[in-house]
């Protein structure tokens, strides 16, 4: 082609959107101008610029070594971050290009060469026009041109996947860069998807599974399935291993290829497709691992089918990145650093996974547990390694549930994250070893390990991203967990701390009368209104101890689902720090039996399709677990005040009678004495008699009289976290449990304690004596426990009163305030205000506080001391620093949600405990305990 003809042709240069573009050309060939025309300034890394950075002179050739070291460092960082990078340097020498090709390989991106082959005289003229290069010797340009000529024929052999040569300045000026989307980059496809695990020739099971997923099969004139369409436009995605071992690999290929061709499905390559493809292309392969069966089945098909199968397999990629980058589908799994990358290493990992280099007792390779270390944002869905059931591990899930070995064929609905499976019709192929959990991290997983919790930890959560646990907090949690906690297999969740409401605005008039508030519900309502939450539910806050109840339908469920081997264990009842509530197992089991009976009568086992429930609750009375606190901190203050104030007041009154001017002091001391009485009355409301020895054969175990359990949320059931259920629906379920409890017949647990009753520790029931404030002395007239004969029916479950408030309706807000005032006037602790809808986020995506506690004026006297309502004390206490406490509440909430999600997803114990342990660790952060 003549020069004029060449000038008129626009060259389109295809460049992968993630690649390392290497510009090659002599000095003065126009590389910098070309780069500036076609690429963003941040994408171009110039050797001249780097030379200037290290020496303040872009032409200082003595600084070239440091300059290129810096250039390679920057290039590596950009490629690691997944950024297209352009290197603007002469790059005419083989050794300079070799380092760049190596960088591309290290980061699994494609190297692309763009050569600017410009005549020598043009280069010389351009350099002469630059003041900083006017004296450049011509021999430098000539040397560059010679090296360029020697390089042109070997660039592809050096490793460049694309080579574009622009000859002459006009062709360089007319060139157009077009960025190509990588074959595996389908981020623009957002689904919804149905991802299907390893099929291995089980065509019948595949048709059944597609039917369950809602697909309508299309068949040819011979009745063979050749396509499947979902009426709602869903797309099937196959993780590979369509063939081998099973009874009808051609039938699976026919259906999947038809779906892919019609745009109804996507498919990635599995290692079995890779091997079959090599066979169909005439390569020599061993006819093992089920390939012999596939070859025999294919021989019954015509040549056109086999050619089409070979073409289909040849076009399969190693993995797909979907749904805006939030979903990666591959065959054997893929670490985050390989997502969207293109190299032989990436393809190999996606097809075969990685191994430790060891073999097991069956002579099979031991898989490297990459999923245990995965912390990526994208969910990775894969197959390859058979596992009894699909379970999430670190945002990854293996869908190979061994259908061909007699297991199940499994699919994952995305974004619903719902697992759907169908059983195998029979064992089609005897496995080399029993079907067991071998997928990385596995559903059963490895044992708990100290390394999972020691030192600084970062826990990936679905609702709040990555949350850090400091080393010192982890050490404190480890002390508690190892010494005091229950069996970790029965400890799937710890509840978060609760955020207090914003400090009430001061009212000088109310403060002067001693009626000021430190906390007021209007602040909670206003906070939720500002966050865009209109409907909130106000729930009565019970004054007891936070309790988590894990109740199984029977001991067999506890053994099979939670791995508990001890006899007589059907669940757990533990505190918010993971400690058992009762030292004797029998008391726990009696409570669990009652709850289990209520669940049965309420019909929740079948309705929720579960064999176990996890409940969040409050266990009362407070005195049941707070004996030490009451004795040393509260009762001591009350007893001291009762001893001191009568004498002091008597002396002051006598002095006043003698005419001594002590009126102001007397009034002050009378007020202090009244505050002390109010303080004593406040904490005594939450202490009452509990239990008496149960009749034989459980003579050592206390009865349940006086014990009240107030459940307010069902946290999780088998296969589901219910933390996202609206609170009104939660409380409706709880009401059914309470109604069932009311209907239970009287029994041994319905006895009423007398003055000789024992508490849960066998040390005597806890009630305050009104004259001594001694927590070891019984007083049957004090407290809220019901009284009556032994035949009286005493329920265990306590209801939670509630009121729904519209935060944008002033009348509704006023009603909520009035409800709170009445509740606290009756002696209630206060209320918790929650959004009716759970898991609410603000417009900026941040989680809204799941609950704000608003404690009553008299209850806060227990917390802040008898005289906290005095104006001077209120002014000081209103300067409360709530930020840390509120941050802690949100972080613990997100970790609790993560633990519930992992539990519901069937993840292994160590994965669930990673989040549980983090909650306990955060509890050791320094924060004002009064908040």
UniProtKB/TrEMBL annotation:
**UniProt domain Calcineurin-like phosphoesterase: residue ranges:** 192-387
| Keyword presence, Transferase | yes
Q: What Gene3D superfamilies would the database entry show?
A: 3.60.21.10, DNA ligase/mRNA capping enzyme (3.30.470.30), P-loop containing nucleotide triphosphate hydrolases (3.40.50.300)
Entry's CDD domains? MPP_Prp_like (cd07423)
Q: Which GO terms describe its cellular component?
A: cytoplasm
Q: In which domain of life is the source organism classified?
A: Bacteria
According to the UniProt entry, its GO molecular function terms are: kinase activity; phosphatase activity
Arranged from A to Z, the UniProt key words for this protein are: Kinase, Transferase
Residue ranges annotated as transmembrane are: none
Q: Does the keyword Transferase apply?
A: yes
Record-annotated Polynucleotide kinase-phosphatase ligase domain positions = 476-757, 795-926
Name of this chain's protein: Polynucleotide kinase-phosphatase
Q: Which organism is it from?
A: Streptomyces noursei
């Amino acid at each position: 082609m003549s020069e004029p003809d060449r000038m008129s042709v626009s060259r389109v240069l295809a460049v992968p959107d993630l690649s390392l573009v290497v510009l090659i050309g002599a000095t003065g060939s126009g590389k910098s101008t070309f780069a500036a025309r076609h690429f963003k300034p941040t994408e171009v890394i110039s050797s001249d610029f780097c030379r200037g950075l290290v020496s303040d002179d872009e032409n200082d050739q003595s600084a070239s070594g440091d300059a290129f070291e810096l250039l390679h460092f920057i290039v590596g960082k950009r490629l690691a971050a997944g950024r297209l990078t352009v290197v603007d340097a002469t790059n005419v020498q083989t050794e300079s290009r070799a380092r760049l090709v190596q960088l591309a390989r290290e980061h699994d991106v494609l190297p692309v060469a763009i050569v600017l082959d410009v005549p020598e005289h043009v280069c010389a003229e351009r350099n002469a026009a630059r003041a900083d290069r006017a004296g450049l010797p011509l021999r430098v340009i000539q040397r560059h041109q010679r090296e360029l000529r020697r390089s042109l024929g070997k660039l592809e052999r050096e490793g460049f996947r694309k080579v574009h040569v622009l000859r002459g300045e006009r062709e360089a000026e007319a060139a157009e860069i077009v960025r190509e989307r990588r074959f595996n980059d389908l981020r623009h496809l957002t689904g919804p998807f149905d991802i299907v695990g390893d099929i291995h020739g089980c065509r019948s099971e595949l048709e059944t599974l597609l039917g369950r997923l809602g697909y309508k099969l299309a068949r040819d004139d011979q009745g063979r399935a050749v396509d499947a369409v979902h009426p709602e436009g869903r797309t099937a995605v196959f993780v590979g291993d369509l063939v081998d071992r099973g009874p009808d690999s051609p039938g699976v290929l026919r259906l999947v290829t038809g779906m892919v061709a019609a745009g109804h499905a996507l498919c990635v390559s599995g290692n079995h497709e890779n091997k079959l493809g090599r066979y169909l292309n005439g390569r020599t392969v061993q006819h093992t691992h089920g390939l012999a069966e596939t070859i025999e089945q294919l021989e019954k098909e015509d040549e056109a089918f086999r050619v089409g199968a070979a073409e289909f397999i040849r076009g399969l990629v190693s993995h797909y990145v979907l749904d805006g980058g939030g979903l990666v589908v591959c065959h054997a799994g893929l670490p985050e650093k390989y997502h969207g990358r293109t190299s032989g290493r990436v393809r190999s990992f996606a097809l075969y996974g990685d191994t430790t280099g060891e073999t097991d007792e069956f002579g099979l390779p031991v898989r490297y547990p990459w999923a245990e270390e995965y912390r990526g944002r994208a969910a990775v869905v894969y197959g390859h390694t058979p596992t009894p059931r699909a379970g999430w591990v670190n945002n990854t899930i293996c869908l190979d549930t061994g259908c061909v070995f007699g297991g199940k064929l499994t699919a994952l609905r995305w974004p619903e994250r719902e697992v759907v499976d169908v059983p195998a019709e029979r064992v089609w192929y005897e496995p080399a070893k029993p079907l067991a959990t071998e997928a990385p991290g596995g559903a059963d997983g490895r044992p708990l390990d100290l390394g999972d919790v020691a030192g600084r930890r970062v826990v990936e959560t679905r609702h709040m991203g990555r949350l850090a646990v400091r080393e010192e907090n982890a050490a404190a949690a480890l002390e508690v967990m190892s010494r005091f906690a229950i069996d970790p297999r029965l400890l799937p969740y710890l509840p978060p701390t609760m955020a207090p409401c914003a400090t009430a605005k001061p009212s000088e008039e109310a403060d002067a009368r001693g009626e000021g508030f430190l906390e007021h519900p209007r602040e909670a309502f206003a906070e939720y209104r500002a966050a865009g939450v209109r409907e909130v539910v106000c729930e009565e806050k019970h004054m007891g101890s936070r309790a988590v109840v894990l109740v199984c339908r029977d001991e067999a469920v506890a053994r099979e689902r939670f791995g508990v081997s001890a006899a007589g264990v059907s669940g757990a009842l533990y505190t918010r720090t993971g400690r058992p509530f009762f030292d004797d197992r029998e008391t726990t089991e009696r409570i669990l039996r009652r709850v289990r009976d209520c669940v049965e009568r309420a019909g929740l086992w079948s309705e929720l399709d579960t064999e176990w429930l996890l409940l969040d609750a409050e266990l009362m009375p407070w005195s049941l677990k707070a004996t030490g606190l009451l004795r040393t901190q509260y009762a001591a203050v009350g007893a001291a005040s009762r001893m001191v104030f009568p004498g002091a007041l008597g002396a002051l009154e006598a002095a006043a009678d003698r005419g001594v001017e002590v009126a102001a002091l007397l009034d002050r001391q009378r007020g202090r004495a009244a505050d002390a009485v109010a303080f004593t009355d406040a904490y005594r409301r939450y202490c009452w008699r509990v239990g008496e020895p149960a009749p034989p054969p459980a003579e050592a175990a206390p009865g349940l009289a006086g014990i009240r359990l107030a459940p307010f949320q069902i946290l999780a059931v088998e296969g589901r976290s219910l933390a996202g259920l609206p609170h009104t629906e939660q409380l409706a379920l709880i009401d059914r449990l309470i109604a069932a409890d009311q209907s239970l017949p009287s029994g041994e647990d319905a006895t009423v304690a007398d003055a000789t009753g024992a508490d849960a520790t066998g040390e005597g029931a806890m009630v305050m004596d009104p004259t001594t404030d001694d927590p070891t002395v019984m007083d049957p007239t004090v407290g809220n426990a019901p009284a009556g004969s032994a035949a009286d029916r005493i329920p265990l479950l306590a209801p939670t009163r509630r009121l729904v408030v519209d935060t944008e309706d002033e009348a509704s807000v006023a009603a909520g305030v009035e409800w709170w005032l009445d509740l606290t006037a009756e002696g209630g602790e206060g209320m918790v205000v929650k959004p009716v809808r759970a898991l609410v986020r603000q417009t900026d995506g941040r989680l809204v506080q799941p609950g704000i506690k608003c404690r009553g004026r008299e209850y806060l006297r227990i917390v802040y001391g008898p005289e906290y309502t005095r104006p001077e004390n209120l002014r000081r206490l209103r300067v409360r620093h709530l930020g840390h406490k509120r941050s802690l509440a949100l972080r613990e909430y997100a970790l609790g949600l993560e633990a519930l999600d992992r539990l519901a997803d069937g993840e292994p114990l160590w994965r669930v405990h990673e989040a549980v342990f983090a909650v306990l660790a955060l509890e050791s952060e320094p924060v004002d305990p009064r908040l």
